[in-house]
Write a structure and sequence with these properties.
Layout lengths: L7 H5 L9 H33 L2 H48 L15 H9 L1
Helix pairs in contact: 2-3
């Protein structure tokens, strides 16, 4: 019997951990990560512009290039981590389904026959004697 899907709030108080809420939260977590990366990029660009104005134009341009590459790598990294989490949870789901299938398809019992007395030599002696 499958448990019925419950709401988000009731899943938070599920002490048996039968409901996994991480999958539901991944979109939100990914969005927050992108927002933080964007905020960090904007702050860094502000610093790069200040460097261009106050210290050296070339240093500011180099900073902007490094910030662009860093932002790109951070977005790729965030996406990869989210996909790794999803893969882990899908493996758990698939494993649970395999266990259910295994229980349903239990092997049939062997027909009752003469039982051996332990070792093959004892069984041969019993047949001869």
């Amino acid at each position: 019997m499958e448990p019925e899907p419950s709401g988000f709030i009731s899943s938070l108080f599920d002490f048996s951990f039968s409901e996994i809420i991480t999958i539901r939260l991944l979109k939100l977590i990914y969005g927050l990560m992108l927002a933080l990366i964007g905020l960090g990029t904007l702050i860094s660009l502000g610093g790069a512009v200040m460097t261009m104005i106050r210290i050296s134009f070339i240093s500011g341009i180099m900073s902007i290039v490094v910030i662009g590459v860093g932002t790109f790598l951070a977005i790729i990294s965030a996406r990869v981590w989210m996909e790794i989490l999803i893969v882990i949870f899908r493996i758990a789901d698939n494993t649970a389904e395999l266990v259910k299938l295994g229980k349903r398809m239990a092997r049939p019992k062997r027909p009752a026959g003469p039982r051996s007395s332990g070792s093959p030599r004892k069984a041969q002696a019993a047949r001869k004697g």
